[in-house]
Amino acid sequence: MIPASFDYVAPTTVEEALAALAQYGDEAKIIAGGQSLLPVLRMRLNAPEWVIDLGRIDSLKGVRDEGDSILVGAMTRHCDVATDPLVAEHAALVARATATVADEQVRHRGTFGGALAHADPAGDLGAPALALDAEFVIAGPAGERVVPGSEFFQGLFETAVSEDELLVGVRIPKHTGWLAHYEKFVRVAHQWPICAVGATLKVSGGVIEGAAIGLTNMGATPLRAAGVEQALIGQQATEEVVRNAAALAADGAEPPSDLNGDADYRRHLVTVLTRRAITKALGG
Amino acid sequence: MTAVEARPEQTNEIGRDRRRKEDARLITGRTRWTDNINLPGMLHLAMVRSPFAHARITGIDTSAAEESEGVVTVLAAKDFDETLGVCINAWPITPDQKTPAHPPIASDRVAFAGEIVAVVAARSAAAARDAAEMVEVDYEELPAVVSLEEAVKDEVLAHPDLGTNKSALWVFDSAQAGTGGSVDEAISAARTDGIVLERTYRQQRLIPAFMEPRSVVCDPTGEQITVWSATQIPHILRFAFAATTGVPESKIRVIAPDVGGGFGGKLQQTPEEMIVFALARRLGKPVKYTETRSESLLSAHHGRDQIQKLTLSATKDGQVTGLKVELDANLGAYVAIVGGGVPVLGAFMFNAIYKFPAYQFNCQTVFTNTTWTDAYRGAGRPEATYAIERLMDELAAEVGVDPLAIREKNWIKHEEFPFTTIAGLTYDSGNYEAATAKAKELFGYDELRREQAERRANNDPVQLGIGISTFTEMCGLAPSRVLGSLDYGAGGWEHAQVRLTPTGKVEVITGASAHGQGHETAFSQIVADRLGVPFEDVEVLHGDTQIAAKGYDTYGSRSLVVGGEALVRAADKVLEKAKPIAAHLLEASVDDLEFTGGRWTVRGTDQGMSIGELSTAVFAAHNLPDGVEANLDSEATFDPENFNFPHGTHLCAMEVDTETGQVKMRKYVCCDDIGNIINPLIVAGQVHGGLVQGIAQALWEDAVYDEAGTLVAGSFVDYLLPTAADTISFEIDHTTSPATTNTLGTKGVGEAGTIASTPAVVNAVVDALRPLGVHDVTMPCTPERVWRAINEGSAGGETTGAAAAHFDQSTGMSGNVDRTEGDVQ
Ligand SMILES: Cc1cc2nc3c(=O)[nH]c(=O)nc-3n(C[C@H](O)[C@H](O)[C@H](O)COP(=O)(O)OP(=O)(O)OC[C@H]3O[C@@H](n4cnc5c(N)ncnc54)[C@H](O)[C@@H]3O)c2cc1C
Question: Which domain of life is it from (chain A) (predicted)?
Fold first, then answer.
């Protein structure tokens, strides 16, 4: 497992990184935590001539309070996101989901931005980001632009970030006080989810005032279960309401068939997991 | 784990929980793993492998690769002569077995994806890999046959020249052998007045997945060619080099330095070893090849892969009257070194611990265009045990009694040992009643059955199942005469030598070749007791044909029960030699000497001499009796007269989530009877590891191919190995029926856990779901299969042969997405 040889550059600012991207164009690959890129290189699925390491750009690391929202820097590692107090308080679903990613080793290297930019439909962070109406901050030659989740995820391993751009951070509107649970279904602990459901809810006096449900690995991109959300909002948080809402989870989804399960199984599974995610978020 | 038995104050080494002396170096890696060996001027190899399962090679262009930086040479099959040697099959199971030639490098046709078509030698491993990417091979794809079901139809042929995919049909019939009655009569009698169960079980294909990938170094500079290989079988490998390359054995030294696991997967003579040997000789320089993990999964031999068609007949109250086994075994593309012998090793075990009056075993070995298969932990016995232990549960369900009761009704009672089985083996000792009683108690069997009944009554979405496996196995491979009668191409004895150094330390040389089992510790304990020397003073040397000149290596749970016995005999010979010398030096008569605690003493006096003092005296040789050699060193070769038969009762409780199909282990208890135990800690390690490997077959591991013959589960993302996070704490215990066939009374434990656990787990899953009409779930019991079994009444169906990509070369970039597949590395 020896990668083809490549040259390496480690800029310390976003500007330098963009300049390197502009210079080397499609001969370059960005490396963040390397947890997805390195296997690609080692298995020689790709052989870029340049690897641009974002690891020394301090401005991309950490979580900031921006008033109505928090900004998670692209280079914030999974282990830091999972334990960050701002994330825990305002985006609990992200904290819950991040804690389930891979294993300790991968969580100590892999980054929030790297995982989202990688856009693996089985990645655990896309659905929570989508559910929380996150905005993706992308820097490019013409400056920064911001895209919503619905535009960011374009397909299997495809995002709105183009070759001369960088994902610099993710802005998540505060969901302070929302209950959250991420229900991940795997066969062995270190696996990507066969299917997972992130549920976060705002409940007041037993009534569900807000609901956001994200689905992982139910299609080429992360999905939001809008039908489930609609069926919950304004309702009493009863077992029956939850059950009926969860039954809608697979509506419109086109899940994959692979070694771990065929599409029909996933369509069934997602309804059970949605019910469980909501129930557990509610404290059940 | 639970303590073996309350032990009195510790005076002996045997029976003691010694931590393994080899572990520090093995765990830290500060040792001689083959890949750690670097020699001056050494060249590195990279293999070019076929991406196609079956194809004609129409051209190989190596010119670009040859130009690549650091490359010394690029060679294809045509560039070698017969000194390259061939990969041998040491066990043609029938005289008319079809055995296609297996050259290390394919010349005009590849028969599986991963087969080597060219090799690059370069100054660094990276340069070799880079150049390997540049070798251009033109293939003309041929139709590939991948599954056993397709292969037996003989429509698409794995080797068109053979005219068939069928390699050999091996049959044992109790009526013919005179060990019992006619199975067909038993079955037809049961059809009119009794029970006939007909079942088909699949043993999925598994990958041994040892921790250290295979690696070979060959140094041809010297009178003897020295080969280091991450192998289980240095002695057999040396033989194979000599037998197939024309280099005399005396010119070859093979060393298996520290080897990081094998599980049968390194019981092989590999194409890579042959290529390294040939290239080093040709270039006159040391050469190294170390495989990548991807190559290891793809091209190191695989295990299991059988379809078992079973017919069991019984009386209405559950007394088994006959068992017929019709088995198809997938050889893959070639007949490997043991190859078709693996299922044959199972032939003697389908009757397990039971008294069956009639038995028939038919095994058809079959070629496919897949990686070749061979031994994997248990080799033949797990498959047999699975089949019969699943069947016993099915029979209990049919009769409507507890599955333990049906076993008891049929098993050999402890007072019936030694017992000659329907398969013609004589079990020397055992006590199934005792092991079962102990396991039941530890498990809380009745309590769990009560809970199961409650969950059933309440329609709990999570159901509880209890699975049983009362296994035995034949190990301690093997009596040479029996091997001869089965046309196996080698013997099964083991050799040991005990040497005393001038300072009184002990060197033990064994022909067994440990690769993680802990021989250095266990063998030191045996010799420390036998010679009365400190444990620390014993050094165990192995795995080098120059040091351990004779041996048959390590597999088949043989090292202790065969190799340990050779060791005991060699140590006893040392004492025999020492005695007259001790008497002479102590000026006493031999008859007045006593040997205890490492000292000879003269009865009735305070005179004595330790074995250390004696070895110094023998070294000096100043005062030896006339005509006595100045040498205490001794050796022994032990050829067992019989196999060795550990047994045990394994009980497993599984929770099955009927909504998702997810299964979760609740409790696992086993009580193994492995005779006397040398080191309980090592035994616990073997049992725990063995259990996890067997459980993994039941639940996780599956080497899935797609229809084109591509190994889809080709990385650890898709070939699911469990970690500690996926298992629970096992409770293990023992009963003790010492083996009568070796001095120490030991029985093999290396494979026991793997053999026993698989059916215990699947029986538990099926037991949980039986009220829902489920009577089988195909392995591995994935959540999807369990869910389908519940909802569709099937055994769970096929696995979709497609892996989800997680490492995609287009990662994170939109625009020019290029998903062409990379080559296999
Ligand atoms: C064994 C294993 C198990 C795993 N299991 C899971 C799991 O269960 N769930 C899960 O969600 N993930 C899992 N992962 C993936 C893990 O989360 C990775 O860390 C993540 O997908 C990639 O993050 P990274 O920082 O390592 O990115 P890298 O590997 O460095 O980069 C990934 C891709 O994104 C691009 N990229 C990175 N950063 C940027 C940026 N700022 N802007 C533009 N492009 C960028 C890179 O060029 C590359 O193409 C697993 C990984 C491994 C190795």
Answer: Bacteria
Q: Which CATH class is domain A179-281?
A: alpha beta
Task: Provide the residue type at B634 as one letter.
Answer: S
ipTM of this predicted structure: 0.96
CB A72 less than 6 A from any atom of ligand 1: no
From chain A, pick out residues whose CB is under 8 angstroms from the CB of B294: 1, 43
pLDDT of the residue at B797: 81
Dihedral-angle region of residue B339 (phi above 0 means left; psi in -120 to 50 means alpha; beta otherwise): left
User: Contact A261/B784, CB-based, under 8 Å?
Assistant: yes
B326 and B189, same structural domain? Answer: yes
Q: What is the mean pLDDT of residues B516-529?
A: 97
Question: Are residues B386 and B324 located together in one domain of the fold?
Answer: yes
What is the secondary structure of A215-270 as a DSSP string? EESSSSS-EE-HHHHHHHTTSB--HHHHHHHHTTTTTT-----BTTB-HHHHHHHH
Task: Assess if residue B151 is contained within a domain.
Answer: no
Verify whether ligand 1 is closer than 6 Å to residue A21 (CB atom).
Answer: no
- From the list A241, A93, A94, A98, the residue with the least C-alpha distance to A181 is A93
Q: Which atom from ligand 1 is nearest to the alpha carbon of A30?
A: 47
Instruction: Give me the mean pLDDT over the B292-312 stretch.
Output: 97
What residues of chain A lie within 8 A of the CB of B817, using their CB? Answer: 157-158
- pLDDT, position B810: 56
User: Is any ligand 1 atom within 6 A of the Cβ of residue A138?
Assistant: no
Is residue B218 located within the same domain as residue B203?
Answer: no
**CA atoms of B711 and B50, how far apart (whole Å):** 12
Q: Is A266 touching ligand 1 by the criterion CB < 6 Å?
A: no
- DSSP 3-state assignment of B781? coil
Buried b (16+ CB within 10 A) or exposed e, B797-808: eebbbebbbbbb
Please state which architecture CATH assigns to domain A62-173.
2-Layer Sandwich (3.30)
- In a shared domain, residues B654 and B744: yes
Say yes or no for a CB contact (<8 Å) between B814 and A154. yes
Ligand 1, atom 22: closest residue by C-alpha: A115
Question: Domain check: are B193 and B236 in the same one?
Answer: no
Residue A259 is nearest to which of B704, B808, B825, comparing CB atoms?
Answer: B704
* Per-residue pLDDT at B809: 59
Count of structural domains within chain B: 3
**Cβ distance of B812 and A118 shorter than 8 Å:** yes
Residues forming a β-bridge with A223:
A215
Is residue B1 pLDDT above 60, yes or no?
no
> What is the rounded average pLDDT of the residues B747-762?
97
Q: Which pLDDT score, from 0 to 100, does residue B2 have?
A: 43
Per residue in A220-271, pLDDT (tens digit) is 999 999 999 999 999 999 999 999 999 999 999 999 999 999 999 999 999 9
pLDDT at A8 over 50: yes
Which member of A36, A188, A256 has the closest CB to residue B700?
A188
CATH of A7-53, one of 3.40.1390.20, 3.40.50.360, 3.40.640.10, 3.30.43.10: 3.30.43.10
Instruction: Say if residues A118 and A149 touch (Cβ distance below 8 Å).
Output: no
Give residue B807's pLDDT: 81
Per residue in B610-661, pLDDT (tens digit) is 999 999 999 999 999 999 999 999 999 999 999 999 999 999 999 999 999 9
Test the B interface: residue of A5, A37, A44, A103 with most B CBs within 10 Å: A44
Q: What is the extent of the structural domain holding B251?
A: 34-142+213-259+266-299
Q: Does residue B433 belong to any structural domain of this protein?
A: yes
Q: Is A160 in the pocket of ligand 1 (CB under 6 A)?
A: no
pLDDT band at B40 (very low <50, low <70, confident <90, very high): very high
What are A85-117's pLDDT values in tens digits? 999 999 999 999 999 999 999 999 999 999 999
| Neighbour-count burial of B193, counting CB atoms closer than 10 A to its CB (0-12 exposed, 13-18 middle, 19+ buried) | exposed
- Distance (Å, whole) CA A142 – CA A156: 26
The owner of tokens 């892969």 is B305
Please check whether residues B454 and B586 belong to one and the same domain: no
- Contact list, A158 vs chain B (CB under 8 Å): 810, 813-814, 817
The average pLDDT across B662-677 equals: 98
- Whether residue A74 has its Cβ less than 6 Å from ligand 1: yes
Do residue B577 and residue B651 come from a single domain? no
Looking at the structure, do residues B577 and B705 belong to the same domain, yes or no?
Answer: no
